[in-house]
Amino acid sequence: MTSTDRYAHRKVNATITVTDELGRPLSGRPITVAQRQHAFGFGCTPPDMAEESGETRELWTQLFDTATLAFYWGRYEPVRGVTDREGVLRCANWLANRGVRLKGHPLVWHTVKAPWVDELPLSEAEELLRGRIRREVGDFAGVVDSWDAINEVVIMPDFVNEPDDIKNAITRMCAEKGRVAMVALAVEEARSQNPEAQLILNDFDLGPRYERLVEEVLAAGITIDAIGLQSHMHQGFRGEDQLNEICNRFARFGLPLHWTETTILSGDLMPPEIEDLNDYVVADWPTTTDGEARQAEDIVRHYSALVAHPAVESITYWGFDDAGAWLGAPVGFLRADGTQKPSYSALRDLIRGEWWLDPVELVTDNDGRIQFDAFAGSFDVASGDSHVLVDLAAGPAQVDLQLPA
């Protein structure tokens, strides 16, 4: 068994028959095939369009094809009725125009929520939350069609919002309605505006409580499209065995798995006794030479293990560079000064190397056919000035294309 066998389920075995306008096979025709996108979602939080350099944005697009856009209620609508719609839309359009798939995060969350909602009666807060979901999903339909519908529901009704825990409207709402009803609220309102949207249930709790929540949500007849799994590995890489064990447990629900937030450190690891990552506060958390070498190795192991698991549909990395990273942790592929860490080229060698089809020149046989194997995705099939973009799913594929003689 070769090392590539573990990715067989990701690959397409394509046979493309090239014909002229009359359906006659074009034999001996030079054809160029080039991959344009993976079917698998290789995602990351996008660079700040206002702050990051053009070089940083270019490095991002050379590696990732899926972006998670921030729709935190408290930042998107810091003052009631005043939203950042235009700013987010500019970023969304910039990415979409470059073929990047987009996801919004999150529609409902008890953290980074709008503080002005907390003072309102719960019934009014609920109506505003429902309206906020409908507004964002409706405004961005056709541009953002994938959403983390609700985030971290396992802890939501018990969340303590220091220093004043009694005013968190989302926490109180969830405590009153129940977790399953909160999920239903998010899903129903989102689907009312975009019935075809991909809606994801997302959580950092990867244990039995989250499994029970998924069971209860599905038993209630609530349709979710994927299970989101978070893993900020600030205390060290989980390892292949643990990743597979987690994937196997959640794969039993028959839904795609999205690793929605993943990070791996390139500096000193957080002490193992820390239970809540937010409790670790240091004045400076630098990237180090040894840490960067470790990060590059762990990144390759992490992505290789998850891409090999058949239930996993996407991986999103949480922080492209160290500037502004969550908790100040050195997790990015770029240092704070914009220079590349070894992890950037290590991951690029996989995503745009081993798992990518560079432009290849083929010639049709007597029946007008070309054949190739590649990771499933979108491919540009060209002959002369004629180009056709073809989406090919994993497995055997037979496609007929008409190109001018």
From TrEMBL:
Keywords: Carbohydrate metabolism, Glycosidase, Hydrolase, Polysaccharide degradation, Signal, Xylan degradation
Enzyme class of the recorded protein, top EC level: hydrolase
EC number: 3.2.1.8
KW Hydrolase (keyword) present: yes
InterPro entries, alphabetized: GH, GH10, GH10_dom
Cross-referenced Gene3D superfamilies: Glycosidases
Matches recorded under SUPFAM superfamilies: (Trans)glycosidases (SSF51445)
Catalytic activity line of the entry: Endohydrolysis of (1->4)-beta-D-xylosidic linkages in xylans
Domain named GH10: residues: 34-350
PROSITE patterns: GH10_2
PANTHER family: BETA-XYLANASE, GLYCOSYL HYDROLASE
Family statement drawn from the similarity comment of this UniProt entry: Belongs to the glycosyl hydrolase 10 (cellulase F) family.
Protein name as it appears in the record: Beta-xylanase
